Amino acid sequence: MGIVVGIGDEESGNQLSTKSRFRCNSPLVQVTLIGLVCFCCPGMFNALSGMGGGGQVDPTAANNANTALYTTFALFGILGGGIYNILGPHLTLAAGCSTYVLYAGSFLYYNHHQHQAFAIMAGGLLGIGAGLLWAGEGAIMTSYPPPNRKGTYISLFWSIFNMGGVIGGLIPFILNYKRSESASVNDATYIGFMCFMSAGIVLSFAILPPNQVIRDDGTRCTNVKYSSVSTEAAQILKLFLDWKMLLIVPAAWASNFFYPYQFNNVNGFLFNLRTRGLNNVFYWGAQMLGSIGIGYILDFSFQSRRMRGFVGIGVVALVGSAIWGGGLANQLPYSHHNPPPKKLDFKESAFAGPFVLYFSYGLLDAMFQSMVYWVIGALADDSQTLSRYSGFYKGVQSAGAAVAWQVDTHKVPLLSQLIVNWSLTTVSYPLLLLLVTLAVKDENKTEDETVKEATVPSSNKDTAT
After folding, report:
1. How far is CA 274 from CA 15, 177, 259, in A?
2. Cβ atoms within 10 Å, residue 369
């Protein structure tokens, strides 16, 4: 499959390619664009899920839909990297985005008919689409930036993406402000989500293939041709025997496992409808702060990339232990059999403590996932390899989430859920430290090599592959 890479004429084309940071084919613009795509689709999905039960009083339909979602996501997350390498960004991302619109529409339908079948089917299809979208996103976010600034670009992406959750949290808060009693969200809430998700489909066509993206120093992000089905199938199978991926498995499994507990059993269990929407504004806002903070540590704290990895993992481990400890103190007074006497409203004084905890959960989520993405990005620099690594990460992550949503559906004791979540994240830290020790190299020896491998040929400004 051929791609013509037009970089302009001899004099003006090189300036366009390397001097303007805000040109369309720069890593900054491309990572910003994929952030906006995820702002519109996964960001709004996160806001919808964060309300607890998909905005419904009874979370059963949402739990079953999410189980279907993460079951198919587990498969297509792993396959997504190979599909992205074959189809390229436009088809892969647009197909993925379209399934988010269908999912939000299924809950609009459920508001009127109370039938789970459509929501469960839409959840299964969304799992396929999300696998495609996140594999592409992972490849773009980890391979397009310069090697020594991946933490910064990851935090940029994470901030834009989670702004979707902030705006998405405002939608149910504003539209349901006068409905402080326990109720499902109104139709306008779901329609608002669908409009944003539809915009994500359009934005996905602005993403360029990796061999058309050029960094500010004149180097291409990668110089690859689209792959074949047989090649990708063989490479995906090898991931299951790759020791680097096996060390990431616990962190991947843990990274979405805590969502059902936090969304349904903290936000959904403790707060009324309008307050849940407000909480989500701050939950996803906290993610922006968390990603910026850990991104700075991972890029600027020390000259040695390996040392930055050690410090970043250590910081997340300490912050995570403190937050889960606070979660334990909050969880002890209530359970499924001993619920709080009434739902909290943001105007009540008792709101402050649980709110700070929920805010902190968002902070930790961003720090944890940004840290894992940074480690993945430090393992390689080419788009094809990183798309497979990212797809494997999302596949394992989604398998864990599928199990977690059913754990919640079967009313496993809340204290047990918290302890399992805390244990899973804790186990992952020493394994990530081992991975950084064995597989992450310092950058000082690779600068010239990277330029030599990826520099745009001066004698061939317009190339076809």
Report:
1. 51, 5, 20
2. 23
Q: 432-441 burial by CB neighbour count: b if 16+ within 10 A, else e?
A: bbebbeeebe
3-state secondary structure of 62: helix
Q: Which token pair is 203?
A: 């934005």
Using one digit for the tens of pLDDT, what is the confidence trace for 271-296?
987 888 889 889 989 999 999 999 99
**Model's pTM, two decimal places?**
0.77
The DSSP bridge partners found for residue 151 are: none
Residue 157 to residue 34: CA distance in whole angstroms: 7
Distance between CA atoms of residues 298 and 316, nearest Å:
11
Task: Name the residue type at position 112.
Answer: H
The amino acid present at 442, given as its one-letter code, is: D
**Cα(104)–Cα(357) distance, integer angstroms:** 28
Separation between Cα atoms, residue 294 and residue 152, nearest integer Å: 9
Tens of pLDDT, residue by residue over 388-412, are 898 899 889 989 988 998 898 888 9
Nearest CA to 393 among 288, 236, 202?
236
Q: How many CA atoms lie within 13 A of 47 on its CB side?
A: 36
CA angle, 151 as apex, 31 and 143 as ends, to 5°?
A: 50
Residue 336's contacts (CB-CB under 8 Å, 6 or more residues apart) are 411, 413, 414
Helix (H) or strand (E) holding 255: none
Q: What is the DSSP string of 381-446?
A: -SHHHHHHHHHHHHHHHHHHHHHHHHHHHTT--HHHHHHHHHHHHHHHHHHHHHHHHHHPPPSTTT
What the block records as the tokens of 195 is 């409009």
From the number of C-beta atoms within 10 Å of its C-beta (0-12, 13-18, 19+), residue 113 rates as exposed
Distance CA 169, CA 379 (A): 35
